[in-house]
Specification:
- This protein has a single domain, classed as Fumarylacetoacetase-like, C-terminal domain (Fumarylacetoacetate hydrolase, domain 2).
- The chain has seven helices and twelve strands.
- It has helices at about 5-15, 25, 35-45, 65-70, 120-125, 150-155, 200-215; strands at about 55-60, 75-80, 90, 100-110, 125-135, 160-165, 180-185, 185-195, 225-230, 235, 240-245, 250-255.
- Strands 1, 2, 4, 5, 6, 9 and 10 form a seven-stranded mixed β-sheet that branches.
- α1 crosses α3.
- The chain is globular and about 50 Å long.
- The chain binds hexanedioic acid and magnesium ion.
- Magnesium ion (MG) binds near residues 60, 102 and 229.
Amino acid sequence: MGNVFEYVERVANAQMNKEAIEKITNSHPALTIEEAYEIQRLSIEKSISADNPFIGWKMGLTSKAKQQQVGVDSTIYGRLTENMLLRTNEIVAADYIHPRVEPEIAFTFKKAIAGDNVTPQQVWTAVEYVYLALEVIDSRYENFSFSLPDVIADNASSTKFLLGSQPYAPTTTNWAAVQVSMYQNDEKKHEGGGAAILDHPIHSVMELLAQLSKEGRGIMPGDVVLAGAMTDAVAVKAGDMVTANYGPLGMLTLHVK
Ligand code: 0L1
Ligand code: MG
């Protein structure tokens, strides 16, 4: 690869300035998955500060539908920082390139856990709470078009996320059976469920741990993990209201100004 720092600079600037860039593989078709994660790590490290600490991980491409859309058969992960966590349920469309919103489930952790061979039971003992979540993704690449290494380098399109106010005890709900309907204004756009996330959202955390273990990393107490989308994403514009209705568990709404 050419100079990794050139790509780090390019991606970090696009993330900061909300400017679409050409995908890296146009100029460097041989970009590897390992190099892409290095670009991700270094570009997100540039944004980290005392005011914007690292707060956790997100899993992406966790459903068969999404993998087919992008033409890959693997999940990916990204890094979450404090300023990605929405404090209100409002975003301003002009602050994004081509934002999309997807309904997710998030885990928070009370214990450290690591390894490529952990069981669901071991993950559950480390989980503190489960939250309903909306993720706002916004690829920094022109036309939301990329190959697998490109999207990894761009931090798995991470931009913002909203957590529901209500924490759920992990063991009281079958998270694979949770259903969600996604509305854009009054129109139902998608339906899905927790099983769309690798058959069960806990599998997504196991997959994250397996991928992180290759770099000698794991989940730390206090980390949040976005497990993945339960339906396709909805492309949003100013004036939209997106509602994810999780049935008896409640609803999350995001207003786009
Ligand atoms: O959160 C996600 O599943 C997004 C992963 C990257 C692919 C995309 O931007 O659609
Ligand atoms: Mg997502």
